[in-house]
Design goal:
about 20% helix; five-stranded antiparallel sheet; single chain; Immunoglobulin-like; alpha+beta; 1 helix
Length: about 140
């Protein structure tokens, strides 16, 4: 006598797995097609990470990216009338960017290529902050 095995347990296990795979492939192909073409003249970043290594307690220095991770803001405050100098170096030691601001002002550092940079902030020939900026 032949025994009949119902297909229900097989269908219950396999059909959802196949449906999940088809959905995953569809979503992956959709996300690749919907990605906007990037023009070659513009820099696009995934993220900008700032790591401070030395910080002076006397001054308040802020170095942070904007929400789109495209530019870096630099601001400083401390004693009134001070001028703060920001220097950004690549890993070869070449000066890439330089900015000067007065107390409680903010400036934008843009057009950064992907890579790792070292920064230093001075006020009246006194180093008040150092660190690393990573642009990915």
């Amino acid at each position: 006598m032949k025994r009949f095995i119902p297909l229900k347990p097989f269908v219950v296990r396999i059909v959802p797995a196949i449906a999940f795979l088809v959905l995953a492939v569809f979503l992956q192909s959709y996300s690749i097609r919907s990605e906007a073409p990037r023009s070659p003249g513009k820099n696009y970043f995934d993220s900008i990470v700032v790591e401070k290594q030395f910080t002076s307690k006397k001054y308040k220095v802020k170095l942070y990216p904007n929400a789109n991770q495209q530019v870096l803001f630099f601001s400083a405050s401390g004693e009134g009338g001070r001028v703060y100098q920001f220097f950004l170096f690549d890993m070869d030691g070449t000066l890439v960017k330089q900015a000067n601001i007065r107390n409680k002002q903010t400036t934008v550092i843009n057009s950064l290529e992907k890579g790792v940079y070292l920064f230093e902030v001075f006020s009246d020939d006194e180093r008040i902050e150092t660190g690393k900026v990573t642009v990915r």
